[in-house]
Each structure stands twice: as C-alpha cells, then as structure tokens.
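Figure 6 in text form: structure in, sequence out.
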C-alpha cells in the first residue's frame, strides 16, 4: 500500500494538480457547450479561432482523441525526456537508495520554440501553459520512486498472519509467486504508460489509462474501486489504531472511544486540502514502520505471545481453535508452526491468509501516478523492480520471524501480539503515528478521487480551487471519515475486512487490470500498419481497416502474440483467485456475525481476552 508516498515526491507541488483539473474542467465544459456543427470534427485536436489559426484543446477525457494521437505525442515526449541531460550520479546504483533533492526536474519549453507537429499559424500560448504545467509535476527520480513504493503501511504487519494460516511451505511459495507477478504487473503498466502519456495529454491515474484503452466505463470502474479501497483503508487504520490505543491504555478506556478518537483526529487533520506540508511526514513513515517491525521482532523473541488476544489470532481458525484453548489450569498450548497447510477445516482460512499476503503488493494502484511525476518514466522499471525485491526480502524475513516465534498466536496486525507491556507500548506508539499519517493521506486522496470524478463531473459541484469547493470540502470531510469509521467498526473480524479489501480491490489493481490494459495497448499498437497513424499538420487519423481483422493482426502480432496469450491466462487466474478470496472473506465475516463476535461498537477491546 504505497499510496501516501506520492505526495512527498521530490518537491512537486500537489496544488498544480488542482490547476490542471480546473483548466481541464473548463475546457471540457466549453466542449460540451459547442453545438454539433462547432464540435471538433476530422481535425480531432483543433478548433477554429479568428485569423485562421487553430488552438489545440488538451482535454484529459476527450472521446474524440484517438489512440494514434495519444501515441504520437507520447513518442514526442519520450524523445524530449531522452534529450534531457543526465548527471553522473543519476546513472549510479546509489541514486536508487539516496535520491537527489537538488534536481530541478523537466526543463520548461520556451513558447517561442515549436515542437514537431506545431503547424504554422497555430496559437500556442494555451498549449504551452498546459504542457509546462505538466512538466512542472515531473520532478521525481528513480530513487524517489524506489523510496515511495517501499513506504508501506499495512502490508508487513499482516504477513505473519498470512504465514500462520498457510504454513511455512505454502506461505513462502505463494508470497514468492505474488512478488514475481507483482513485478511483471509493474512492467505491464509501464509499457502502456510510455506509449500513451505525454506533456499534451498526461496520464495521472489508473482511470486515465483505462479511459484511453477501453473508454469511459473502464475509467469509472477504476475510480470507484480506488475510492472504495481508500475508504476501507481509512476505516482499517482507524480500527487498528483503536486496538493499539486500547492496549496502551491497558483496556481502561472504552474501545469504541479509542476508535472514535482517531476518527476525530481525521476530522481535524483532514481539513488540509493540499498535502505538500505532509511530505516529510510521509517520507518518515517508512522509517517509523521499520522501527516498529524491529521492536515487534525483539518483543516476540523475548516475551511470550499475547494470550489475552488469542481469540483474534490465526489459531482461532485452525483445528477448531483447540490450539489456543487453555487447559484447566489456565495454561495455553505451546507455540506451534506447520510446514504444510494447517488444518482450518476448509480452504477458507488459508485463502484469507493468502489475501493478507496480497495486501503487501497493493501499491500497484498508484504506479501510474508515480510515473506521472517522474522526470524520466523510463527509469521506473529499475526503481520498481528494486522496490519489489526490497519488499519481498524484508517482508518475508519479518513474516517468517514473527511466525516462528508466535505460531498460531499471531494476530493481525502483528504488533498487537506482543505481551510485554513496555515493548508493546513502544511498538504501538510508532504504529499509531505511522498509521495516522497514512489515514489522513488516504482520506485526502480518496475524497479527492470521489469529489473530482463524481461530484464535479456528474453533479457539477464547484472545483476545489473555488470558494464554494473549499466550503464543500470542509463539510464532507467529517462525513467521509464517519462513513469509513462506521463501515470498519461494524465488521467484527479485522482480518476478514482486510481480505475483502484485498479480494475486491487490491488483487485487481495488482494482478487483473495490468494485463487487461497491456492486451488493449499491444493490440492497438501492433494493429497499425504502413500508412496508419496521426498527421500533426492536419490533425487527421488514418486507419486502413478496422474490426476483427485489425484486432487479430494486433493480438497475433509478431513477437507479442505469446505475451497477449499469457496475459489472457494471467487475467483468468487473477479472476479465479479473486473469486476464491471474495468467497472466503465473505464466509469469514458471515461466521463472525453468526457467532455474535464483538464489533467495535462496544467497550470491551477484542484484544482483552
């Protein structure tokens, strides 16, 4: 879950996004107001202006813009990026781990200079405002992206629970497979981005990529799932912080109050609309998480498990819960681990554990946003693969270490499973600080996604840059946090809720959507033949044919047919796993509700016996 980090990316000002949103909204509104005979026709990217000149309309979601047009300008942008001078430091391995803060980013274009495709007589001032605003956002190096992808919140702390429900062998095998596929998915997102993104038509999110390859419905699907994931992430963090606070308070404070405290904190901190000043906090989150991991491992190695929270542990779903039941003398069974799949009575418990492992690779949802802010998106691959390797090694080490010492008593999140109060409190404090940073950032981003794509676009709400938009923001922040709190607090099983998020959202963004986007991109790209393409001087797009013939030529193109075929199988496997995960998580929650397991709307903490 790497989402919060993109707000700290090498100095780019998030408020520029608001400016581009406003310009785009104004232009889209202007286009909608044109009558049919004034709407852009054969010259898809131009509109007539007095004096015989033309002015391009750079609108992020213009249905008249073709794939060939996006592809043409993307090649122009890639050429400009390659021409940018590289420092010696940028080419070294150290630039991955210690990103430079002195790089000024992409050089802005001189309005007096014409790029390829700028015909005579064009009025380019508006174009240069647009493209320079896009350039101003592209300041990140590959080192910054490596750092941001590893800025995780919930991933590492759910992994010990995953190993506890899957066992040593299956856990290691599945986590390794998920890591390899996550790296492959990163490549599948990178290639279409490189062929569709440009200064004229920048890609800023999964939704933009879906729109350009499949249309409006795919963009809305991506945005809805992203909004749901971020909303539930906020709720998850509120509940996990509530559990941590109840432990710190030695269960003397009513549990629902502990959760409510963090929701109120979100009400207040969430009033910040632009998150530029949160940047250093977001960067600190990765180090805070590492400190929490080391404290937790130290506590697990030198103190027994937290037997009081055994009912919330992985052992509750193994062998009917007998492995966590104390005997007549009140002595709990010893820590036990399993080399193979533990006996959970059905596959549900193991599948739920696999969903926790998938949670560790949930950052793919924002890979397009990371690339959108990079000075050279070409460098994203090395940064992403290095980050995935870093996550794989350290998360695997942490998960196996905690499982080895705590076995069936492992709790999700794992820092709640320490029994020594002093170590427990230290870990909880660091976890709460890191999580509240994440919750505020998740809430801010999630609400902006919902506001800009639902309220502004569908209900004509005022943009956030206007006075009316600012007042609406003030009013809906408490509503957003209240909904997140209500959803999470009403669900009695924390691991079940994280499994729902993983199965319905994270898994698709990481393993289903990347190959889906890749197939569409490769088909469109390799279906082009000699004479096809976009003519920048006339604005016309030429295609020699269409329909099934064009699709077949693109899908079975030389050198890429095997990747398209592999991606079809990849999509099928991801959908099957998602179906299993959804069924398992729903059944887990159903069992929790039927057994009257406590929700968060009570005073007794789920960790208090």
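Output sequence:
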């Amino acid at each position: 879950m790497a989402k919060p980090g993109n707000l700290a990316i090498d100095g780019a000002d998030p408020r520029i996004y608001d400016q581009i949103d406003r310009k785009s909204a104004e232009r889209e509104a202007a286009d909608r107001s044109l009558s049919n005979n004034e709407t852009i026709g054969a010259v898809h990217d131009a509109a007539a202006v007095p004096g015989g000149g033309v002015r391009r309309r750079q609108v992020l979601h213009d249905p008249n813009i073709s794939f060939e047009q996006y592809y043409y300008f993307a090649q122009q942008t890639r050429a400009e990026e390659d021409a940018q001078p590289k420092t010696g430091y940028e080419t070294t391995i150290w630039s991955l781990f210690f990103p430079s803060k002195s790089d000024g980013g992409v050089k802005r274009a001189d309005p007096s200079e014409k790029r390829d495709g700028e015909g005579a007589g064009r009025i380019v001032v508006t174009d240069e405002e647009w493209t320079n605003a896009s350039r101003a956002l592209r300041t990140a190096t590959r080192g910054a992206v490596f750092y941001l992808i590893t800025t995780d919140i919930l991933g590492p702390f759910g992994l010990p629970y995953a190993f506890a429900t899957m066992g040593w062998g299956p856990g290691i095998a599945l986590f390794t497979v998920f890591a390899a596929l996550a790296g492959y998915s990163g490549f599948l997102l990178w290639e279409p981005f490189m062929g569709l993104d440009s200064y004229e038509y920048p890609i800023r999110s999964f939704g933009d990529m879906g729109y350009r390859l499949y249309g409006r419905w795919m963009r809305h699907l991506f945005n809805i799932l992203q909004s749901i994931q971020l909303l539930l992430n906020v709720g998850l963090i509120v509940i996990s912080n509530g559990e941590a606070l109840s432990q710190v308070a030695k269960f003397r404070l009513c549990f629902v109050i502990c959760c409510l405290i963090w929701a109120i904190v979100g009400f207040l901190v969430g009033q910040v609309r632009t998150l530029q000043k949160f940047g250093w906090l977001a960067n600190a989150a990765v180090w805070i998480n590492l400190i929490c991991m080391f404290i937790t491992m130290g506590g697990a190695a030198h103190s027994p498990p937290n037997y009081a929270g055994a009912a919330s542990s992985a052992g509750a779903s193994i062998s009917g819960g007998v492995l966590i039941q104390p005997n007549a003398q009140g002595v709990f069974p010893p820590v036990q681990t399993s080399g193979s799949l533990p006996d959970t009575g059905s596959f549900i418990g193991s599948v739920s554990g696999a969903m926790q492992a998938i949670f560790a690779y949930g950052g793919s949802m924002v890979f397009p946003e990371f690339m959108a802010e990079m000075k050279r998106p070409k460098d994203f691959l090395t940064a992403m693969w290095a980050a995935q390797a870093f996550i794989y090694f350290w998360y695997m080490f942490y998960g196996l270490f905690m499982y080895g010492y705590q076995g069936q008593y492992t709790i999700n999140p794992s820092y709640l499973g320490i029994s020594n109060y002093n170590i427990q409190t230290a870990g909880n404090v660091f976890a709460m600080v890191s999580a509240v940073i994440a919750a505020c950032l998740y809430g801010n981003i999630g609400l902006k996604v919902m506001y800009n794509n639902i309220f502004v676009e569908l209900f004509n709400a005022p943009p956030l840059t206007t006075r009316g938009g600012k007042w609406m923001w003030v009013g809906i922040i408490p509503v957003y946090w209240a909904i997140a709190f209500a959803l999470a607090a009403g669900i009695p099983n924390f691991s079940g809720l994280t499994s729902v998020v993983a199965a319905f959202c994270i898994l698709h963004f990481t393993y289903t959507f990347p190959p889906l986007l890749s197939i569409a991109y490769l088909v469109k790209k390799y279906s082009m033949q000699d004479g096809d393409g976009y003519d920048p001087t006339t604005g016309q797009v030429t295609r020699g044919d269409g329909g099934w013939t064009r699709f077949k030529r693109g899908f079975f193109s030389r050198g890429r047919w095997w990747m398209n075929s592999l991606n079809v199988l990849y999509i099928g496997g991801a959908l099957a796993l998602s179906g299993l995960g959804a069924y398992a998580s729903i059944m887990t929650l159903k069992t929790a509700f039927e057994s009257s397991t406590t929700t968060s709307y009570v005073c007794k903490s789920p960790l208090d016996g």
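Caption detail: The first helix runs from residue 15 to 33.
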